[in-house]
Amino acid sequence: DVPKATEPQGDSDGPRRGSLCDRHCATINNVQGDLGDLGCHQHRPRVPPALSPPSCCQQHSDEVCESCVVKTTLTAENVVEANKLSNNYKFGFKKWKSHVTARPWEDRSEIVKELYSDLNVIRGSGGSTVTCGNVLYLLLFGWWLSLLYVLVAATMFVTIVGASYGWLCWDLAGYFLWPFGKVIQKVEVPKSRRALGTCEAGVGESSALLSGPVPRRWRLWCWADARYWQRAGAVAWLCLGYPALVLAHGLVCVTAWLLIVLIPVAKLSARAAARILLLPPEQVLVRRLRMTEVPLEGEVILCCYRAVNPYYYKYAVDGINVFAVNLLPLVLVTLVLGYVDSHNHLTSSPVKFTLALLSIMPLSYYIGMAIASISAQSNFAVGAVVNATFGSITELTFYITALIKGSREGNRCYAEIVKSALTGTLVGCVLFVPGLCMVIGGIRHQEQRFNSRSAGVSSALLFLSVGGVFAPTLFSKVYGKLVCGECHNVTQNPLGHYLCHNCHFDLMENNGTLYYSHVQPLVYTVSLLLPAAYLIGLFFTLKTHSHIYDIHISDCHMPGHHHSAVVHWSRWRALVILLLSTLCMSACADLATEHISPILTNSTISQYFIGVTVLAMVPELPEIVNGIQFALQNNLSLSIEIGNCIAVQVCMLQIPILVLFTIFYPTNFTLVFSDLHVYASMFSVVLMNYIFMDGKCDYFQGTVLVMVYFILLAVYFFAPSPSGC
User: Fold this and answer.
1) Closest of 300, 296, 301, 310 to residue 264, by C-alpha
2) What b/e string do you get for 681-705 counting C-beta neighbours within 10 Å, with b at 16 or more?
3) Is residue 422 a part of any domain in this protein?
4) What is the pLDDT of residues 568-615, one digit of tens each?
5) Which pairing describes strands 696-697 and 448-449: parallel, antiparallel, or unpaired?
6) pLDDT tens-digit profile of 657-706?
7) 3 preceded by a cis bond (ω within 30 of 0)
8) Which H helix or E strand runs over 207?
9) Residues 539 and 681 placed together within one structural domain of the fold
């Protein structure tokens, strides 16, 4: 059946017509997959294109049908998630792919459920355990872990009182050599075995509970005083055997967790160290699993079938992606090395700069997650204020600290690096981010469509912002005086040709009359007009013309299966994380600018290239990942908006804030860019608008954008460094 059009609540344009065109266009949107972030797609009806009414555009005007094509239907599990999805389509709000609430367990796929399951589930048919991942475990951990258990077993046998733990380690040595297809159980010792009167039982006697021979370590309890041997053996175990094994399992756990795909091994080691090794040896049974023994009696503690699972990149801890969790210790290492080893006794400046730059990536993720959580749980006003305040905090923190350091040292190279980073962010978000999303999304989808009207708003703001930002530069080119540092006569003729180096337009002629009387007032005027234009764009897209996006939020659950929102981060928790991440971001940016000087001085690479690549794109990696995930879901509209919004914020918010900062804290930063920055930015914006003109794209158009971006990078790579650097 053709789904009915969802009626939005509180629409200022009045009730929507429940016409055949609406239903047809809702079907088109469902089939094409332009559904945004699907909370649980299995409840969404799949309608083939053949069932859509063919006479839609014959019954209604072209304007109605054109407007209904851009409708976007979103499904959400709860109100908080619906607010987050709606905020993704609002201009000026940070686009966030990950969920801010816990998804219902029944809506998860079987692959994701396996990621979060404990290693204590026995499968009906496990299949072969000889896989590449299991062999990798044997080569990385299995052989030496098993050898360590053998050595500990020998040590416990020597103590005599710990012989029962020796037999346990002997059994575990075989288990951890190849744990796949084996099971560790917690069993209760039969009362008949605890009585000293049954010590003379035969060696081959079986247990009815386990349907197998009695473990050897049970027979050790037939000695004179079981309680004495139990206490003495436990002391010997905790002093001689347990610490070494815990350290080994801890090393395995940390290493496997950092490798991500080996997280099952990390879970296996953590369970062994935290529970199995602390159990009395007579309660631990290790055995190979056979099909005829399913189900087993007794509690299953460990049962692992494979060591590698490539889908663990989806794994999250309290809503935080595992990559961000693993990179968080890097921030602590960076701060400790940066502020404790201030004289570079332990590491060099390039190493500290690299660590500080890499630490910005997880902090950007935490800032984005906190902003999305606060916005989803608050009203529109609070969300707009939070996004406007902290949306560009990552870039601004680095830029301001670099300008402060350059002002203190009297080095104008830092101002040029900031200009290169601003240009690199603009060019990268206009060309590389949407181009990469088109290429990756085009591999799965032959043709992708997006909302050309909403993209047109961002494109118009980009044209306006680029023109405003580079207006002082064009003004200086027209009225400034060209000054060259060194000129040579090539032809030895006074009227011949001269070869000049280090030429630039001097704005300080006649005591800076041109700059202070003409260029500087123009810079301040532009810095006031650009934020005003940004506010007008917000008012246009969010208030008066919000129908451009035409977002419909619907509940994907069947009647009687509604779920309340269980947020990962409450508003107060998200606010605390946001402030702490911002503080750590400031510290990492300070360390990066502190140790970038040797790289700028000793590197043979142009400072232009360092600014437009490393300093510009590394902080944007979380946004790039979000854009790729949206493109894979055939939601290219958000992928494009991610790049456009960042580029617009660079020109309309970040640059005016830097100009305002120079008023209160004088620096070498002036809003006059080099010719290379001007040409690269303007060409990128023109090319992007040409590609996005028809509202559809494929991987070839994305390849064009990416190739043009790499060509510009090659130009920056071979360009000489700025004069004076």
Assistant:
1) 310
2) beebbebbbebbeebebebebbebb
3) yes
4) 888 899 999 999 999 998 888 888 888 888 887 777 778 888 888 888
5) antiparallel
6) 999 999 888 888 888 888 889 999 999 999 888 887 777 888 888 899 99
7) no
8) strand 206-207
9) yes
Same structural domain for residues 372 and 262? no
Mean pLDDT confidence for 443-461: 78
Here the contacts of 222-228 (C-beta below 8 Å, separation 24 or greater) are 222/196, 222/198, 226/194, 226/196
pLDDT tens sequence across 456-475? 777 888 888 888 899 988 88
CB atoms within 10 A of CB 59: 13
Q: Where are any strands of DSSP class E within 117-188?
A: 182-186
d(CA 331, CA 362): 8
Q: What average pLDDT does range 636-646 have in this prediction?
A: 84
483 inside domain: yes
Residue at 272 is within a domain:
yes
pLDDT bin (cut points 50, 70, 90) of residue 513 is low
CA dist 76 to 36, 84, 90, 713, Å?
A: 10, 9, 17, 41
Residues β-bridged to residue 489: 498
User: What are the residues facing 696 on neighbouring strands?
Assistant: 449
Cα–Cα separations (whole angstroms), residue 476 to 413, 509, 656, 672, 673: 20, 12, 19, 8, 10
Rg of the chain on CA atoms, in Å: 33
3-state SS, 238-296, equals HHHHHHHHHHHHHHHHHHHHHHCCCHHHHHHHHHHHHCHHHCCHHHEEEEECCHHHCCC
Is 499 in the same domain as 593? yes
Could you tell me which of 245, 225, 243 has the C-alpha nearest to residue 235? Answer: 243
Among residues 643, 640, 709, 717, the alpha carbon closest in space to that of 680 is found at 709
What distance in Å separates the CA atoms of residue 278 and residue 376, rounded to the nearest whole number?
Answer: 44
C-alpha count within 13 angstroms, C-beta hemisphere, residue 113: 8
Picking from 541, 485, 558, the residue whose alpha carbon sits closest to that of residue 720 is 485
- CA-CA distances (angstroms) from residue 242 to 185, 236, 489? 19, 9, 82
User: Do 585 and 473 reside in the same domain of the chain?
Assistant: yes
d(CA 331, CA 397): 16
| Residue of 263, 257, 255, 271 lying closest to 176 (CA atoms) | 271
Query: 621: part of which helix (H) or strand (E)?
Result: helix 621-632
295 and 337 housed in the same domain: no
424: domain CATH number is: 1.20.1420.30
Which is more confidently placed, 305 or 503? 305
- The Cα–Cα gap between 254 and 247 comes to 11
Same domain flag for 281 and 324: no
Q: Are residues 291 and 357 in the same domain?
A: no
Burial class (CB in 10 A: 0-12, 13-18, 19+), 70: buried
From residue 491, alpha-carbon distances to 486, 487, 496, 497, 498 in Å are 16, 12, 6, 6, 8
Q: Which helix (DSSP H) or strand (DSSP E) does residue 302 occupy?
A: strand 299-304
Exposure letters 114-137 (e unless 16+ CB within 10 A, then b):
ebeeebeeeeeebeebeeebbebb
Q: Which residue has the tokens 């510290």?
A: 587
The label of the residue with tokens 């996004």 reads 387
CA distance linking residue 590 with residue 400, whole number of Å: 9
CB 296 within 8 A of CB 122: yes
Domain boundary among 276, 293, 311: 311
The count of structural domains within the chain is 2
Q: Which of 284, 311, 338 is the last residue of a domain?
A: 311
Three-class SS of residue 9? Answer: coil
User: The domain containing residue 446 runs over which residues?
Assistant: 315-556+570-718
Rounded to whole angstroms, how far apart are CA atoms 147 and 1? Answer: 64
Verify that 464 and 516 share a domain, yes or no.
yes
Q: What pairing do the DSSP bridges indicate for beta strands 481-489 and 284-288?
A: unpaired
Residues in CB range of 66: below 8 A, 6 or more apart: none
121: in domain: yes
